[in-house]
Amino acid sequence: MITGASSGIGRELALAYAGPGVFLALTGRNQDRLHGAAQEARALGAEAEEGLIDVRDQEGMRSWITAQDARRPFDLVIANAGITTGLSPRALAEDPRAVRALIAVNLLGVFNTVEPLIPAMGERGRGHIAFIGSIAGLRGLPYSPAYCAAKAAVHAYSESLRGRLSARGVNVSLVIPGFVKTPLNDSIEAIKPFEMSARQAAILIRDRLDRGRPIVAFPWPLYLMARLARILPVSLVDQIMARFEVNVPQTRESIF
């Protein structure tokens, strides 16, 4: 199962996994784009089920996921759906409504995706849960506070689950991508070092997940710089970050 499969990394992941004998459960909110992704996956030989559903809908997600898992137990779920919001160079604080909309999608949506499957996979003693985090979750950035906070929470949640579920035979992986060329990232005005295409990212993610890697971080230079920023003097890193001119548009999403 892949959430947010109608565009960006989610769509490319669906195509990366598509093939004869593969069953894909794909969710998204745009019917035309979701159907297009499913049709492309079918053309590659996969069977694809379309779930036109919002990850913020807790009961809707639980009902749909439980029904699909009862039909064909999931081997892998990728919690991918997400949005972005942030600040213009002259703004001081994010709109509280935008912050809560982002948290609803990027954090509560993750909970709504994996919670229905944790007991089922634990009982079966097998399965794989993968979370799409972000390098922005490693260190707070002054131009996207809520996004960084949500991704940092996803990182901590995945780490907690990994320690708990590994003893039950369930793998947990955290994907930590840098800049990937997607509609979401295209809206951000900034220097984007080591940016890669969504297709390149999807192929890399699939390869690492197939190997059972607990952490899938890329590109390595950017990941190492973010890790280094955690141990350098805080005042120094803050000064460096403040020099970058970045414009992250405010989301037009609303609280579900």
Descriptive key words:
globular; two-stranded parallel ribbon; 4-stranded parallel β-sheet; Rossmann fold; 256 residues; alpha/beta
Question: Outline of this structure?
Answer:
The protein is an alpha/beta fold and 256 residues long. 47% of the residues lie in helices and 14% in strands. The chain has ten helices and eight strands.
Topology overview:
Blueprint (H helix, E strand, L loop, with lengths): L7 H10 L5 E6 L2 H13 L3 E6 L5 H14 L4 E4 L16 H19 L3 H7 L3 E5 L12 H21 L5 E7 L2 E2 L1 H4 L9 E2 H13 L4 E4 L1 H10 L4 H9 L14
Parallel strand pairs: 1-2, 3-4, 4-5, 5-8, 6-7
Helix pairs in contact: 1-2, 1-8, 3-4, 4-6
Structural summary, described in words:
The protein contains ten helices and eight strands. 47% of the residues lie in helices and 14% in strands. Helix 2 links the parallel strand 1 (23-28) and strand 2 (47-52). The chain has 256 residues and is α/β, with parallel strands linked by helices. The mean pLDDT is 94. Helix 1 runs parallel beside helix 2 (31-43), helix 3 runs parallel beside helix 4 (96-114) and helix 4 packs parallel to helix 6 (145-165). It has a four-stranded parallel β-sheet, sandwiched between helices.
Top CATH class: Alpha Beta
Could you list the spans in which at least 5 consecutive residues all have pLDDT below 50? none
Number of distinct helices: 10
Largest sheet: 4 strands, parallel
Give the class from helix and strand content and strand pairing.
alpha/beta
* Order of secondary-structure elements: HEHEHEHHEHEEHEHEHH
Assign an overall shape.
globular
**Average pLDDT taken over every residue:** 94
Radius of gyration: 18 Å
How many angstroms does the end-to-end distance come to? 22 Å
**Beta-strand residue fraction:** 5-15%
Helix content: 40-55%
Number of DSSP E strands = 8
CATH homologous superfamily grouping: NAD(P)-binding Rossmann-like Domain
Indicate the CATH architecture.
3-Layer(aba) Sandwich
Number of domains: 1
| Widest β-sheet, arrangement of strands | 3-4-5-8
